[in-house]
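task queued by scheduler; priority normal; single chain, no ligands, no partner chains; default sampling; output format set to C-alpha cells
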Amino acid sequence: QVQLVESGGGLVQAGASLRLSCAASERTFSNYAIGWFRQAPGKEREFVAAISWGGAGTRYADSVKDRFTISRDNAKNTVNLQMNSLKPEDTGVYYCAASARGVGVIVKDPTQADYWGQGTQVTVSS
C-alpha cells in the first residue's frame, strides 16, 4: 500500500509561482509513474502532468505546457510540480496519483491509477 500526501498549495495572485509536492510512504515509489490532476469547483477532474518511473518521460496538458514542470526525486520518494505564471483558471484541488502500469495509464485512464492522494488546494486570484 502506497500512501500519497500532497503539499504546497495555497492562495496566490495571478503571475505567481507555487511548488507542489507529492510524498510517498514506500520505497517502492520508484516503481510507479506519477501524475498530477486538478479539479475546479463544478468541473470534472483533469489531467495536468505526469512523469515516468525514472523521470525521463514527462507529459503535460496543453493548458500548462511551458508554465509547469514535473520532476521526481526517487531517493526522497517525492514528485514535485513547479507551477509558474499561475492563472485564475489554474485554481482547483490538485491531486497526485500513482500507477505501476506507467504514464500511459495515468494520461489515458486515470481511474485505473493504483493510488491517489487527498489533494491540496490551489487558489489563484486575479
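post-processing summary
- The CA atoms of residues 27 and 60 lie 26 Å apart.
- The longest strand covers residues 92-99.
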